[in-house]
Amino acid sequence: AGTVPRRRPPRSDMGRGLTLLLLALLAAPARAEGGTAVAEQVQIEVLHLPETCSPKSKKGDLLNAHYDGFLASDGSKFYCSRTHNEGHPKWFVLGVGQVIKGLDIAMMNMCPGEKRKVTIPPSLAYGQQGYAQGKIPPNATLIFEIELYAVNKGPRSVEAFNQIDKDSDKKLSELEISQYLKEEFARDGKKRHPSAHDEILADIFKKNDHDGDGFISAKEYNVYQHDEL
User: Fold this and answer.
1) Hey, which residues does 118 pair with through a beta bridge?
2) Statement to judge: residues 96 and 167 lie in one domain
3) How many folded domains does the chain comprise?
4) What is the pTM of this model?
5) What interhelical angle do 18-25 and 196-208 show, nearest 10?
6) Which residues does UniProt assign to the signal peptide (predicted)?
7) Which domain holds residue 185?
8) Are 162 and 140 in contact, with CB atoms under 8 Å apart?
9) Could you tell me which residue, 154 or 3, shows the higher pLDDT?
């Protein structure tokens, strides 16, 4: 599975920022699905469990992990996160469809430093279609070896919502999100076309303002974990 880096990724800036806002507001949240019978189809083998196992991951958390993917049929490797994105561990929000369904299930209740080997059936991976671009054939059972580095509150947490909701009226206005975008653009210092701000703002409201009232309510923002606002 390759050499596992011992360097722990920095965590200081991952609780906030433009990346979180875009993850939260530009990605349409996946609808919840009943999961008891489905979850039993994912086989989980814990390879290493730290003495201190806290916090445990849950839906909506922002995770940082390395993982390798193999075809169960012949053991060939089809993916290695250490060879992508300059070898940086992958950040994603758990349980919202940013990874295949099987990984969303397999990485629940996992703690920083934990390693797992999971087997995912085709129905919770790429199904009958497969994924040609990823060299995954139809009806393929997949095996992933995962090492989890960090569990953080995700972008749809109460904290993230309140950070944008400057007037604390429990809804996000175009002005509030526009100001948040400006602050984050200034913070990261990257050059962008002047139209980028307006395009992102419009896309955020297109994806999240379901009733078209010009605000993104807490319900539309889809805060996880039954948080109260």
Assistant:
1) 44, 144
2) no
3) 2
4) 0.61
5) 40
6) 1-32
7) 158-217
8) no
9) 154
From CA 3, how far away is CA 22, in angstroms rounded? Answer: 32
Q: Which residues contact 129 (CB under 8 A, 6 or more apart)?
A: 138
Q: Are residues 77 and 147 in the same domain?
A: yes
Residue 172 main-chain phi, psi, to 5 deg? -105, 120
Q: Are 85 and 141 in contact (CB under 8 A)?
A: no
Write down how long the chain is: 229
- CATH number of the CATH domain containing 191: 1.10.238.10
| Residue that is last in its domain, among 119, 152, 185 | 152
Answer yes or no: are the C-beta atoms of 94 and 154 closer than 8 Å: yes
Task: Give one DSSP letter per residue of 134-200, joined into a string.
Answer: GTB-TT--EEEEEEEEEEE--TTSHHHHHHH-TT-SSEEEHHHHHHHHHHHHHHH-----TTHHHHH
How far apart, in whole angstroms, are the C-alpha atoms of residue 126 and residue 102? 10
- Per residue in 184-211, pLDDT (tens digit) is 778 767 777 888 888 888 888 888 888 9
Encoding tokens for residue 214? 């010009």
The residues that bridge with 116 in the sheet, in sequence order, are 46, 146
Residue 30, pLDDT above cutoff 80: no
Q: What is the mean pLDDT of residues 139-156?
A: 89
109 and 163 share a domain?
A: no
